[in-house]
Structure formats: C-alpha cells, structure tokens
Amino acid sequence: MIFSKITGIGHYVPENVITNQYLETLMDTSDAWITERTGIKERRYFTYGKDTNASMAAEASKIAIERAGITPQDIDFIVYATITPDYYFPGPGFVMQRELGMQGIGVLDIRDQCSGFIYALSTADQFIKSGMYKNILVVGSEIQSTFLNTSNEGRGVAVIFGDGAGAVVLQATENAQHRILSTHLHADGTYAEELYVKDPGSSRSKRFYDDLVEDNKTGDVFMNGSAVFKHAIVRFPEVIREALDKNGLKPEDIDLLVPHQANLRISEYVRQQMKMPEEKVMNNIQKYGNTTGASIPIALCEAWESGRVKDGDLICLAAFGSGFTWGSALIRW
Ligand code: ACO
Q1: Whose Cα sits closest to atom 37 in ligand 1?
Q2: How far is the CA of 227 from the centre of ligand 1 (A)?
Q3: pLDDT (tens digit per residue) in 122-151
Q4: What CATH number is associated with residue 71?
Q5: What residues are in contact with ligand 1 under a 6 Å CB criterion?
Q6: Could you write out the DSSP letters of every residue in 73-114?
Q7: Together in a domain, 205 and 159
Q8: In whole angstroms, what is the distance from residue 304 CA to residue 311 CA?
Q9: How far is the CA of 261 from the centre of ligand 1 (A)?
Q10: pLDDT digits (tens, 9 = 90+) for 173-210
C-alpha cells in the first residue's frame, strides 16, 4: 500500500509587526478588548514591493523542500490554498511555481478559506495514495491586510487577521508507521454569507467597478462573529472526534492538536471540550493573528521547530471557517 508522509515543513511571516497598540492609533479599539476577545497581541502585515502571496509561499516552500532533502525539480504537483490571490486569476500557485523554477508540473488552487490547508493536504494525500504523484508541495499563503478596513467601521474584523505563509512536502511511503492516517472534510453552504467578501465577484448585473461607485463596502470582509463562534465550537470537537473514531483512537492519544488559529477563545473552548491539557494544544495566534489558509502550516512548523512534534507522535490538525467549512487530519509523525 502507498501512504503519504510529511517530510519537510517551512513557514514565512513578513517582518512588519503590527501591535494592538498600533491599531489603537488607527481605530477606536484597545489592547485589552482585542486580547480578551481573541488572544491576539500582534500580527504581521506584508511589505509592499517585497512580499506577495506567491513570494511568501515560495520562501516557505524553499525551506520545506530543503528539509525534505529534495530539490524543487523533484516536486511533481502543487496544491495551493489561499483566499487572497495576488491576481483575481490566475492563482498565486502559478507565479510561485515560476519563481521556484518548477514550470510544467500541475498546480491546483484550493479555495476553502480557513479550512483550505486541510482540504489541500487531503487532496494531495489522495493523489499520492492513488499512485498518481510521489512528491507534492502543499501550500497555504495569505495577504489579508489589504482586505481589512482599519477604520472604526471595520474594527470587529480588522483586529483579527494577519499575513503569512506555510508549506509542507508530502511524499509517498510504504511505511504504515509514519503517515497521514486519515483526513475528513465537510461544508455547509447554508452559512455562505455569514463570513464572506462579496467583491470582486460575478454576482452583479454589470461590471462591478461601475456598481462600486454607489456601494463601495462590498470588498470588505463581512463576519457574523457570534454565528462563527457558535458553529466553530461545535464543529471543531466534532471533526476531531470523527478522525479519532475512524482510527480507533481517543482524545488522550493525541500528542499535539494544531487547530486553525481562528481565535484563542475558540481554541481554548475546544481544548476544554476535548479535555486536553494546555501543553497538547498549539497556539501562536498571539503573535500572528488569524492567517486563514496559512495558519495551520505556520503553527505546525513552529511546533516542529521547537521540538513539540516528534517521530511517532499523533498529531491532529483541525479547522473551521468560511463556507462554512470544517475538516481534520490525523497524522502519525
Ligand atoms: N475594539 C473595540 N470594540 C470593538 C471592536 C474592536 N476591535 N470590535 C467591535 N467592538 C465593539 C462593538 O462595536 C460592540 O460595541 P457595542 O456594544 O457598543 O455595540 C462591542 O465591541 C461588542 O461587540 P461584539 O461583536 O458583540 O463583540 P463580541 O464580544 O461578540 O466579540 C468577536 C466579537 C471577537 C468577533 C466574537 O464574536 C468572536 O470571537 N467571534 C468568533 C469569530 C472569529 O473568531 N472569527 C475568526 C475568523 S473566522 C475563522 O477563522 C473561523
């Protein structure tokens, strides 16, 4: 049997640190409000002229590829999760492919918001298990700061999000001891407009630029915060349990849970629901805010770099986000 295994991981965050105190100078907010509601103390914003969605992904990917002990030319497919492409189309996966000199291989763009990385990983896992590819680069990268409305009007959303990128190399293996055990994907489009950005969409009767003259807020992120919270705290534990049940495992078997870094209050609630000790849940939202499709590979990479992910550990990745989407992946490292 062929399985897939993460053999390399990397991340890149822009150098520009945006503290809560800095946001206080842009809008009517406070470090206390943001910390209490989200746990976030600072986040990173890209530097225009230096960072792009694709360039950040390329930096993260170079590290992941090197750690896997291969070269970009060994990669035979790219799966790239983002909701903030540099261009409306084509997606940044193509630009990153060019930057890394990997022209010719297939690139698949994934748009599943905060669950994007789990959807990307699951897709890559299926391609490897089917025997179609052997070395897949799986990326999550976001530049969200340009979407944020940092006036008072947008403060409920703007304080949460940040920029960054992460990547893993997934390789074929016959070793059943170290591999992705299973992945689980879900969505419920009933709630599509509870967390969304309308434009530049194709839902209008005419060119959206013409409409924007009258209605110029539709490029902003709309979020029904309480609806997101209520669904997230149900779906996270549910999809973690689904992965455990599928493999005949229990919450106490998990060595490290790496949740999508949505909001520290959500992660803490999930931890309590799963009756897990604090040291078994990875949180770095305090430093980076919510980086959507990039949050899981960034958090997993930092956990790995600090020695919290060891050979043989049971690692659980879980996400919930816009769509609504949710998913999990169980990995025997
Ligand atoms: N600073 C100060 N005050 C603010 C801010 C801000 N940044 N934003 C909103 N407020 C004000 C509101 O205007 C409101 O004022 P009012 O009482 O005078 O009307 C007050 O604070 C309370 O606002 P609420 O929206 O009720 O605040 P709540 O306590 O619900 O917290 C939050 C909002 C943090 C968004 C919460 O709903 C939440 O945690 N939701 C989950 C959503 C989430 O985490 N999304 C993450 C991204 S999605 C994902 O990754 C899955």
Answers
A1: 225
A2: 11
A3: 999 999 999 999 999 999 999 999 999 999
A4: 3.40.47.10
A5: 29, 33, 37-38, 114, 155-156, 159-160, 195, 225-226, 228-229, 232, 262-263, 265-266, 290, 320-321
A6: GG--EEEEE-SS-SSSSS-HHHHHHHHTT-TTSEEEEE--GG
A7: no
A8: 10
A9: 16
A10: 999 999 999 999 999 999 999 999 988 888 888 777 77
